[in-house]
């Protein structure tokens, strides 16, 4: 996956989530795409997604959780 693809997916997940679940959906992005975005500059992914660079921390939290959780279908 390229950085632009990751940013597009993140933007979609963020923008299509309920207002009170924005950070949750950023975590879910990190969980779901942990392997694909590993090694990418997460701050840049967030910026290209149109959200603040500070969300890189929330992406990383999701990536760390990916080892321990599975998404429901």
Number of helices: 5
Biggest β-sheet strands, sense, barrel:
none
Percentage of β-strand residues: under 5%
List the domain count as a whole number: 1
Record field, number of beta strands: 0
Structural class: mainly alpha
Radius of gyration: 11 Å
Brief summary of the model shown:
The chain has helices at 3-15, 22-32, 34-37, 42-48, 56-65. The chain has 73 residues and is mainly α.
What does this structure look like?
The longest helix is centred in the first third of the chain and has 13 residues, at 3-15. The protein has one domain (3-65). α1 (3-15) packs antiparallel against α2 and α4 packs across α5 (56-65). The chain is 62% helix and 0% strand. The radius of gyration is 11 Å and the shape is globular. The mean pLDDT is 96. With 73 residues, it is mainly alpha-helical.
């Amino acid at each position: 996956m390229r950085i632009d693809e990751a940013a597009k997916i993140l933007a979609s997940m963020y923008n299509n989530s309920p207002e009170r679940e924005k950070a949750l959906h950023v975590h879910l992005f990190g969980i779901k795409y942990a392997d694909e975005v590993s090694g990418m500059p997460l701050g840049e992914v967030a910026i290209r997604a149109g959200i603040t660079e500070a969300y890189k921390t929330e992406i990383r939290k999701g990536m760390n959780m990916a080892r321990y959780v599975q998404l429901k279908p």
